[in-house]
Amino acid sequence: MTVEMVQILKPDGSLVNSKIEPKISEADLKKMYRVMVLTRFLDERGLTLQRQGRIGFYVTSTGQEAIVGSALPLQKEDWIFPAYREHAVGLFRGFPLKVFIGQLFGNSEDLNKGRQMPNHFAYAPIHYVSISSPIATQVAQAAGAAIASKIRKDSAIAITYCGDGGTSEGEFHAGMNFAGAFKAPCVFFCSNNQYAISVPVEKQTAQPVIAEKAKAYGFPGIRVDGNDVLAVYQVVKEAVTRAREGQGPTLIEAFTFRMGAHSSSDDPTRYCPKSKLEEWSQKDPIKRFKTYLISKKLWSEAEDTKLIEQVKQEISDTVTEVMKGTPPSLSSMFEEVYQEMPLNLQWQKEELLEEARAKGEFLDSSEAFPL
Ligand SMILES: Cc1ncc(C[n+]2csc(CCOP(=O)(O)OP(=O)(O)O)c2C)c(N)n1
């Protein structure tokens, strides 16, 4: 089956056709590039921290940083329902690095106070909804939020992200079906990185083109080169415009590749041929975008070297700061669920605190608990 794939930048960074070059300001181009580079080095550091035993878990998005292109067409009021590889989307929208790294450590610097699994980011001021562990649940949540927005006549649209594996889940079907039936202002962004942990996409679905699945729900599906940040920007911009103008949802399939392990817990050499990594290294989204920016005389090797130094320093300084945090207090796990804590929880809390006190388990007078 041959299906067109939207591409604006060729893997060598040159334009496919200068007539389709999107108009993006120099500041936005440079901001996207900076976030891509930051994300790449954040991944490197995140994995190192996990290997050092300082954090429990990390998920990289190495090779998929061009997803940042999907953040630029969004407005402040829009809602993001991410999977777990959208670091660049959050960072572009203003996810503070300290909050991001704090979440990984789950200590007193973490807004969630360690009550979420590492890498399950959330940040309300930018409408970045908490990542859910069960895959694809966010698809149905986004459809619901988009339908609510339509009923309220808000201008906000919702965008949600999932992987190729996520398309096999019931929530993917439910979300797409509801969004289609209610013409919801929703954009479904599927990063087809060709693997769901160790399961290759051809074992996941008999439909080799995920974008084609949109037909069954009655709205357009578009396949885009997921390593081409300009193409990602362009197709999402069009989908966002459709959604905002009341024309309903769009499914975008970004064809890409995960240039590493699924998470800090697996070894891709056990299931992914080395040749595939070599092939996709040639299509690296960061290298491609950098070559484009240099050819436009918007960037130089000297600026690149400086940027890399800056982001590495920023990450190091933030990690150092976050590591000064203490573990959260044991009682915090009972708090901020109910406005008034029910009696049964109060009893449980007292019982637990008493036991921990008796065993001498607290680190300090704030009842910080070493997890
Ligand atoms: C409902 C459910 N089943 C299984 C898992 C375990 N699991 C976590 S991530 C994952 C693979 C998801 O692959 P995909 O959707 O392609 O996303 P990718 O990791 O490739 O970005 C699986 C099976 C889970 N979290 N939730």
3D structure, described in words:
The chain has 371 residues and is an alpha/beta fold. It has 2 domains: 18-322, 3-Layer(aba) Sandwich (Rossmann fold), CATH 3.40.50; 327-371, no CATH class. Helices cover 39% and strands 8% of the residues. The protein contains 11 helices and 7 strands. The chain has a 5-stranded parallel β-sheet with strand order 1-2-3-7-6, with helices on both faces. It has a two-stranded antiparallel sheet with strand order 4-5. It is globular. The mean pLDDT is 96. The site of thiamine diphosphate has 16 residues, from strand 2 and strand 4.
Strand-helix topology:
Blueprint: H1 26-51, E1 79-81, H2 87-93, H3 97-105, H4 137-151, E2 158-163, H5 170-181, E3 186-192, E4 195-196, E5 199-200, H6 201-204, E6 221-225, H7 229-244, E7 250-255, H8 274-281, H9 285-295, H10 301-322, H11 343-358
Parallel strand pairs: 1-2, 2-3, 3-7, 6-7
Antiparallel strand pairs: 4-5
Helix pairs in contact: 1-2, 1-9, 1-10, 3-10, 4-5
The structure holds thiamine diphosphate (TPP).
Thiamine diphosphate binds at residues 85, 133-135, 162-166, 191, 193, 195-197, 258, 262.
